[in-house]
Amino acid sequence: MTSRAPRILPPGSRIETRGCTAVLLSAAIAAIVLLGCAGTVGRGESGSGSPLPPSPITVTVQPASATLFLGQSQQFQATVSGTSNASVNWTVDGVAGGNSAVGTISAAGLYTAPGSLPANPIVNVSAASTADSTATSSATVTLHDDIVVSVSPASASVPAGGVQVFTATVTASGSPAPGVTWSVNGIAGGNGSVGTIAANGTDSASYTAPAAPPSPPNVTITATSVADTAKSATASVTVTCGNLISPASATLSLGQMQTFTASLCVAIGTPIAWDVNGIAGGNANVGTIVGNPASGATNAAIYTAPADLPSTNPLTIHATAGGMAASAAVTISSAVSVTVSPPSATVGVSQRATFAANVTNSPDTAVTWSVNGVPNGNPAVGEICIVASNPCVSPNGAISGSVDYVAPVDAPTVNPVTLTATSEADTSGAGTAIVFVAAQTGPISVSISPAYAFVVPSAIQPSTMQFAATVSGTNLSSVTWSVQSAVAGQGCGGAACGSIDANGLFTAPSGAPSPNGIAVIATSVADPTKSATATVAITSGPTITVLLPSSVMAGAVEGFPFEVQGVNFVAGSSSAGTGSVILLDGQPRSTTCATAGACTTVLNPSDVQAAATITVQIRNPGSPGALSNPAAFVIVPFDVSTGTIALDESQPAGSGQNLVVVEPTTAAASSPINVDFIGLFSAGNCGVQGSPLAITRPSSGTATVSLCVHGTGLDPTFTHAFTGPNGGADIGVVASAVTGLFPNTIELDLTISNATLPGVRSLFITTLNNDRAVATGMLEVK
Fold it and tell me: Is the pTM of this model over 0.85?
């Protein structure tokens, strides 16, 4: 290594060494010592060395210091050199952007002092280059305030238990945090011994003196600035002995409670007696007052306002102890309201409807009722009765809950009538309902249409059926609708029966019940004892649609087929246990179901001997097997009389006639009784002719005419008769069998006379089961 003597260079000289380059920037650098390093020294840009390195980044903050009042602002500027990036990041005491405790600074360098004086009133505002975070500069900010606090009034004399309002005023430069905190004798908020103080806002508070003067009786109220806790002001209070109740007055709602505190000039612990309007402890009429040991104060009591408005209002509460007394005034207010539901109704004469009174804003819910101003009404306008009482029992005074209104036997002169429920708590509170009394014009009856319905089950979309009810015998046509199982003790209940709205729109359930019968009931509002019922079957279950026959006459002497038609039966035989079974009044019959839509059995004469209505159902296989809807098979009383509608030239038309038609026992047969043709029968031969077959009555005496009649199911044992006067008695008929001709051919031998009336006649054929068939216009007498 070669040593060299130090050289002194002027500013601006460049030094290059192996692995390093240096530039002399200032005369303050007096010399560069080059030891053990070969290098070349030159001035400026001369020589063969490398170019100058980049200048270092520096930050300067102006102003370098500031003194601010609380809440004041100061704009700082940061200058960055050594880089084209002039942006900086600001902090206050190391907190980016500052905070409420040390103040905040914006990205533009605007510093805002905090509202409260921090523990260290000197803070540092720093700016760091965003290009080089190690390049920083700081300014110091000294925070101070000139806060002055005053309290008004500066002194006060307050009786024990009394209240005094104090107001604090805070003046200062800048914008310090507003408000003060309050203390009594240095105790924040005070306590029961020296009194309590509670803020009413940012600048006022209410001081409540203790129940008894403290010892000494002087206390100090202090208001301390929240911006600088070193700044405060005080007021002195002398607690005096006084006889008073706090609060001195109150307005309470019915049943509301209020705590009262008594301050009496007696020894601490002396028992205090409380009364309301001179009544010790009060009572239900004026309200009650009792001591409140739970509060921890022996001089406190809880008053409970009466449930009903008192006759004397306002009331006076007294506190008495050791010969000392104090009073407070209590006004009882009322916001009682009464509503009656339903607010309107239509009731048939002699019928009843239930009404309810709803009382609010009072613990007493009792009301008195009147009809058109008559307490509990009377027989002329209708009466108010205890619910379900029969005969009517009127309420004895005010009553809570519901009552029944029973309409008079005749519509009143003033119609509608007004039902009024008046609050027992406050007679100025009342509610009304308007009731129209509907007159009865005759016996009330209800009919419903359709009487039977087959409805698909509801799915994503509801399945509905509209029913209509007709009420006769009253001008009140409204009904109430309901649904239930059509079979008592079995089947659906609740939502499984579907639903029906007030307009009679039935909504089917999602599946068929078992038994598959739903009763839709329309009940008269005018007379709830009158109703009509329709039957609904849901088509997803076994459903009966047709009975063949659906009715027969009692007294059949031969068995006959009985067929049940519908949907969702099970084909098969009951004897084999593979098919549906027909039930008659719940009893199974031997059944054959050729298809899923038809099942048959045989009814015996013993099944139909007497008039009755038999319930028919289908039971499908299963355990338990699904049951169909019930269908009525009617057996009418035996009656072979013939109803006649007499018409002549003077009365060529008839109306209002009830025609009762009973189905033949052959209704389920594939080949019922039928007449195909008629002819004259002679010497064993049948001369077929068209209808009507003409015969001529003799000019005198009688004559016999033989006819041959061919058809289906004909039998000479049946009864044969032609229409005419007196049931066709002017033509005698004798039936006999015919052999050797077509099957199902019979011979009818007619006896006619010159008295037989001319005209076209029809042939009636009556079977042994009293079934009838008719061949219309078969014979003409000339």
Answer: no
